[in-house]
Design goal:
With 179 residues, this protein is mainly β. Strands 6, 7, 8, 10 and 11 form a 5-stranded antiparallel beta sheet that branches. A 4-stranded antiparallel beta sheet has the order 3-4-5-9, with no helix packed on it. The termini are far apart.
């Protein structure tokens, strides 16, 4: 077990995990990004200002997931990509949503914008996730920050998340052929 970088000794696995995860608590549904530390190497021609879960969204496994990223652009930004990442408490990235995954970049004029991310079925297993946000343009970081912690809960129709932590379970197609 480490405390402030110093080894305090070993302990039962559950006790050590509890010591680390016990310090992690869920944030509010609306995260004010103006109050968190942003990347000091970013261009700062645009600012990520707020990340919020849609009012009708439960943030539950297996149910629709929808959230909004509000930003301000001080000048025109072309060929932009917005991304939101979900990491486990241990720092493992289990899901990234990038706006350019379809090959289409975003273009912004000077002004304020709200970009909505929608996933038809939340693939994240119940648990706490560190959320980070970023905006890139032309390969350069316009802005990025660690936003907070969101808790994914068990959904009403959830019958499989109790199989243990799986991180991300995507919907996919299967086909069975007799041989």
């Amino acid at each position: 077990l480490l405390t402030s970088g110093k080894t305090e000794g070993i302990g039962r696995v559950e006790a050590v995990i509890g010591a680390y995860l016990g310090k992690m608590t869920a944030s509010e549904r609306v995260l004010d990004l103006t109050k968190v530390k942003h990347d000091s190497y970013a261009l700062n021609t645009g600012r990520l200002e707020r990340l919020s879960i849609d009012e009708g969204c439960s943030l539950a496994y297996g149910e629709p997931l929808s959230f909004h990223l509000d930003l301000t652009c001080d000048s025109a930004i072309s060929g932009a990509m917005l991304g939101v990442g979900f990491d486990t408490a241990e720092g493992y990235r289990v899901m990234t949503l990038d706006s350019d995954v379809s090959g289409k970049a975003l273009n912004f004029s000077k002004g304020k914008y709200r970009v909505t991310f929608t996933v038809p079925r939340n693939p994240l297993s119940p648990g706490l996730y560190n959320i980070s946000c970023a905006m890139f343009s032309g390969g350069a970081i316009v802005d990025s920050c660690a936003a907070g912690v969101w808790e994914v809960v068990t959904g009403q129709s959830d019958v499989i998340s109790n199989r243990g932590f799986g991180g991300c379970r995507l919907a996919f197609e299967t086909e069975v052929l007799a041989l």
